[in-house]
């Protein structure tokens, strides 16, 4: 009797579980899992447009010998290695300053810094393009202040184009990450800080030894999402460089290369699918590493 | 399987039924970019056709150029024709790419259109294995637009700008920069526009007539890169990024010359405050013998989708207006600055009128003359890819690396892209 | 209050002050530029001009603004309602009805976050075309309804949902769907508010997928129109700026109205 009842409960528990997640799982299977496998299948084919033939690992061999793929990979790694730490650090510092009750107008500052992430990628790239044009307001201001002697080729010199992309992403996403830290910090018990202050621990040490360790789960979460975002970087470079990833391929990312291989160049769907799997593998590896590193220390 | 084959098939039939009823008989949908140029011209063509065939309406849909190309490629790649329009505009550089990678997607027009009536170089670009697939539209016959006021300030008369060499052009540029503080020309290092102009003026391209890559053994490309390097290193170039800024440099009066296709005339004439200040000359040449001053940049053509329900009507429409209506070409020249490639159109009145914006010069006449001299070249199917490879190595040219080494790296990169 | 503490505060003010200025400046630039001509904008003119009326006039002459706005709003509202409904169900389900199999399914769901959209475009487009959904607004919405990110977000937030409430409701004889609808949803409303903002903004600002799916002028959204204006043969940056302002206003408005709920929702997700 009781066993039957327990079985009935378990069945109802299971049934309800599947009912709640069912619609989502079905949709994900149709609109994500199926296309992913379809792409995998495509990655074994090569040819012009629809004239595709089975190529085995031909696309992988092509990757190996493709200098453009190599620069796209390098650029993507550079963006990720440089931009993510800068942004996370900035966001953490801003959050810890804004967590200081003694300061006035905190709400105003917080709102201002969060504002960029409401803009659409089209709007914000148009804005940045006009601001960073050869005679644009940024160069004009820098010249006026005397920081530079000649205008910077933000979009015409390979080095500065990379800098501009990093600046743009940082502008758009720092406030977004900051809100996460701020939220987490407000959950930290104030008395811990007070005790440390009374013990004479300086502010920077309280930040490094108390705040950061306590925020570890949030930092991990934001680092992983930022990593995924940066490795898939597309919108910004596409709109800043009119889809070309120039000058001299200096802002070409893997996602943009995939897009080019699909839509701008002679369509190589199979090869594009192969490149997309490089991103999948990188994201998986890095996420795993970050989880591992975070776990190791705790 | 995610959904049954049968289900998908039913959906497909349902969709095509829906489509055939929703697309009214006689509605021809056209995709193009630039509402003020291609879009407006197509509207005019549609109005003319509809006046004679009231049962037909032409519906023009415009997107950004990159968007049109991307949509076309997505739809063709998915193998579904229902997403496609009846007529689409394709830039000449990309024509072979589409024709070769999606065989059967575009209607063959060889038997329907008299292609002998058009500029031969245009027809060659839309031909695959002897079959012609498009309706030639505008040409990008190239010219050098220059600011008479700036050049005068630097000590040059309009006659000094006629039939010059690139070396002379660099010289003049230096004088302009010195005397006026303006730059000679604006270049976007993301695009190979100037290289394209220079190469075609020498009758060469990145590939030969058999579509074989010719980079290391291409003196025309070598010379073009050399000149571009000279120009930039001489400090006479304003480098900027993207079409918007490039076009903006005309309006802001930052540059003394504009090297482009004839379609840029509209943009130049849009600067009402620069009325009378512009002149037109042939582009510079690589030789001093008066040859090699004709070239081309851009230009596009109309293509009919083979699966279009309105295929025959669409072909008839293109043929009647773009293939025969000389008066139509006069109107789009006067109103939009579009130089068509129908040879008969050149004898029309509009072509011989003087243009006050250019100080009474008969600019259209000049472009029409140069048009006949544009050397036909085979763009092949990989212009975008090789452009990227070439421009990726421009910094090496500027650093002064030996051109032979640079060409070798370009060839290596291009080779990796074109398989 | 001692001097070093004052100096410390000054440094902190300076730091957030600069950050706030840099964050807001592009918005100011957008507003200022909307009053200038195209040439002035590219020339870096950072003062108000007289071209505002002309820019607005040109914008409305070139764009069927009400239609474009209606399209954007329709897509964003559809996406928000469907995504939140379906994905919050799943987030709740994964947390409340845990089992080995479902936990495994959940990790698979999270893995899909790693797939770049570029890899899905062609197969997705083929599917939409086969189901006759090209050039419809529902095609934009469909692939995003089950969002791994939103599911993750709701599952994290559900951890803070008091289990006693559920137990009490069960004792009262409520069915599982009733518990979800009448207890979970009201209790978690700040979580919902934040999710609504996230999804609405993402959908309103979405560009690449609508660009691929939508084919006609009648279905275009505001972001497509802005990008189209910015890439004409002779683009008028003043007009483009009007477009960017109009594209940004709704998300800005929603953010300001719902800012408090947003931060509260975030708090829930990282607890």
UniProtKB/TrEMBL annotation, chain A:
Domain of life of the native organism: Bacteria
- Recite the UniProt keywords alphabetically: Cell membrane, Membrane, Transmembrane, Transmembrane helix, Transport
Transport as UniProt keyword? yes
Supply the PROSITE patterns for this chain.
ABC_TM1
Provide the leader sequence positions. none
Its subcellular locations are: Cell membrane
Name its GO BP terms in alphabetical order: transmembrane transport
**Matching CDD domains, A to Z?**
TM_PBP2 (cd06261)
User: Is Membrane tagged as a keyword?
Assistant: yes
Segments spanning the bilayer are 20-47, 68-93, 105-124, 136-154, 160-183, 269-293
The Gene Ontology CC terms held by the record are: plasma membrane
Topology with respect to the bilayer? Multi-pass membrane protein
* Listed InterPro entries: ABC_transporter_permease, MetI-like, MetI-like_sf
Q: Which residues form the ABC transmembrane type-1 domain?
A: 73-290
Q: Which family does it belong to?
A: Belongs to the binding-protein-dependent transport system permease family.
Q: What is this protein called?
A: Lactose ABC transporter permease
Q: Which organism is it from?
A: Pleomorphomonas carboxyditropha
Show the taxonomic lineage. Bacteria, Pseudomonadati, Pseudomonadota, Alphaproteobacteria, Hyphomicrobiales
Automatic annotation (TrEMBL), chain B:
GO CC list: periplasmic space
| Localization, UniProt | Periplasm
Q: Kindly state which keywords UniProt assigns to this record, in alphabetical order.
A: Periplasm, Signal
Q: Does the keyword Acyltransferase apply?
A: no
Q: Which InterPro entries match?
A: Bact_solute-bd_prot1 (IPR050490), SBP (IPR006059)
Q: Signal peptide: which range, if any? A: 1-25
Looking up Gene3D superfamilies in the UniProt record yields:
Periplasmic binding protein-like II (3.40.190.10)
Q: What parts of the sequence cross the membrane?
A: none
Q: Establish whether keyword Coiled coil is in the entry.
A: no
Write out the similarity annotation: Belongs to the bacterial solute-binding protein 1 family.
Query: Which PANTHER family does the entry link to?
Result: ARABINOSE-BINDING PROTEIN-RELATED, SUGAR BINDING SECRETED PROTEIN
Name of this protein = ABC transporter substrate-binding protein
From TrEMBL, chain C:
- Transmembrane regions: 12-32, 75-94, 106-128, 134-154, 179-204, 237-257
Q: Looking at the UniProt record for this protein, which Gene Ontology cellular component terms does it annotate, in alphabetical order?
A: plasma membrane
Query: Taking every annotated instance into account, which residue ranges of this chain make up the domain ABC transmembrane type-1?
Result: 69-258
Q: Which GO terms describe its biological process?
A: transmembrane transport
Q: Where in the cell is it found?
A: Cell membrane
Question: Which keywords accompany this UniProt record?
Answer: Cell membrane, Membrane, Transmembrane, Transmembrane helix, Transport
Q: Please give the PROSITE patterns that the UniProt record associates with this protein.
A: ABC_TM1
- State the superkingdom: Bacteria
Membrane topology category: Multi-pass membrane protein
Coiled-coil ranges from the UniProt annotation: none
Family per record? Belongs to the binding-protein-dependent transport system permease family.
Q: What is this protein called?
A: Lactose ABC transporter permease
User: What is the organism field in this record?
Assistant: Pleomorphomonas carboxyditropha
